[in-house]
Amino acid sequence: MIEKVDMYHNTIRGVPESQLSELKFLRVLNLRRNQISSFPIELCSLPLQVLNLSNNKLSSLPIEIGLLTSLQDLDLSSNELSYLPNSMGEMISLKDLNLRRNRLEVLPDELSKVKLVRLDFSYNKVSVIPPAYRLITSISVLELAHNPLTSPPAQVCTKGKLHIFKYLSASAHEQEKV
């Protein structure tokens, strides 16, 4: 019964789908620093708690990623992701989400449903933090450096999490008026 697989720093281009379905007890999967360009949908049916796909060549994620409801730690840093599926809001156990160094321009509102403790979307192209993110009250680490943020503005972001969340609450209130 295999619970952990570590295939760090190889030249893996894809994961054999037929073999994945046999890993019914897999909790930890490390595929960091490989050449993977498409997310294996079969991963979404496993009881994963930790998944590291950082430093690969992923350009998109399947809608099925929302089925990973046991996943607590997801590292997708240093890929080529330009968007995130809304279904990520269904990942109810997710605590740590690393999206650092991708090509993201927009963050889905649905992520506000997840009780994240750590969110890193630094080094992306995000200009607006969705006002819905004020609902992520469980967050203790928010990394957002090196984004062309206009909302909240830089002078708010430099004051820290409390000021960012106040700004997001005010923005949500203004949107509700319209």
Please give the number of β-strands: 7
Biggest beta-sheet profile: 7 strands, parallel
Strand content: 5-15%
Specify the overall morphology: elongated
Helix content: 10-25%
The helix/strand series, from N terminus to C terminus, equals: EHEEEEEEHH
Total of helices: 3
What is the terminal separation in angstroms?
Answer: 56 Å
**Integer-rounded radius of gyration:** 17 Å
- Overall average residue pLDDT: 94
Structural class: little secondary structure
Low-pLDDT parts are: none
In spatial order, strands of the major sheet run 1-2-3-4-5-6-7
Structure description:
This protein has helices spanning 17-20, 154-157, 161-177; strands at 4-6, 28-30, 50-52, 73-75, 96-98, 118-120, 141-143. It has three helices and seven strands, in the order βαββββββαα. It has 178 residues and is largely without helices or strands. The radius of gyration is 17 Å and the shape is elongated.
SSE arrangement:
Blueprint: E1 4-6, H1 17-20, E2 28-30, E3 50-52, E4 73-75, E5 96-98, E6 118-120, E7 141-143, H2 154-157, H3 161-177
Parallel strand pairs: 1-2, 2-3, 3-4, 4-5, 5-6, 6-7
Comma- or semicolon-separated keywords:
3 helices, elongated
Summarize the structure.
This protein has 178 residues and is mostly loops. The chain has helices spanning 17-20, 154-157, 161-177, and strands at 4-6, 28-30, 50-52, 73-75, 96-98, 118-120, 141-143. It has three helices and seven strands.
